[in-house]
Amino acid sequence: MKPPLDVTDPTFIRDLRASKPSVARVALALWSGGHTVTLPAVHERPDETAIAEFGDAGDLHVLQRIEVKHRPALHFTTREDLTRICGGDGLTIDSVRKWQRADPKPYAYVICNGSLTHAAIVLSASFAAWTLYHPDAFRRAQPHYRCPLTHVHVVSLAHGLRVAAIPPRGGGVAERSPPR
Fold first, then answer.
1. Distances from the Cα of 51 to the Cαs of 29, 56, 126, in angstroms?
2. Tell me, what DSSP letter sits at residue 53?
3. Given CB 3.0 to 4.6 Å as the disulfide criterion, which of 81, 83, 87, 90 pairs with 76?
């Protein structure tokens, strides 16, 4: 029997609720850039046994699935800032489990800085370059993917975000065996 949700992921509901401002900010930026944006309904599952019934359909949709992450402690406005912050480790994208369960796979990840003024955009087409990261002190000790900063594009959210600012991927999501 699995432990209750509040034991395996004690901050899940709080984190889900706290993600709403960053999702709204990116949706507004895309809408201001002339795109029609759909925000799927958010339903909080009552416990871990209801994962299948309360699956994540993505944070927002603009003809493609886009995952939005808000990193309150990450202060950047340029890729150079990210290089200074992340060093050679790359930018943490998402948990391996969430990526594996995603259907459809996200077109891109938009990772907002702490003040919601800029975002790092990572196309899922760069997946073949991602590396596996096993966090020790991360709040959720599960493996995550990191993307080399050469595949990261930093944009301002101040005047709207056009999908054209997200470089085209030139084909489907890159697939490969998970790194070891």
1. 30, 9, 28
2. G
3. 81
How many Cα neighbours within 13 Å face the side chain of 18?
10
CA distance 130 to 146: 5
List the helix and strand counts (H, then E) for the chain. Answer: 5, 8
Domain boundaries, the chain: 5-85+109-123+149-162
Contacts of 45 (CB under 8 A, 6+ apart): 5, 51, 53, 54
Tens of pLDDT, residue by residue, the chain (180 residues): 555 545 566 777 788 888 899 999 999 998 888 788 998 888 777 776 776 676 677 889 887 789 999 999 999 999 999 999 988 889 999 999 999 999 888 989 999 999 999 999 999 999 999 999 887 765 567 899 999 999 999 999 988 887 666 655 443 344 444 443
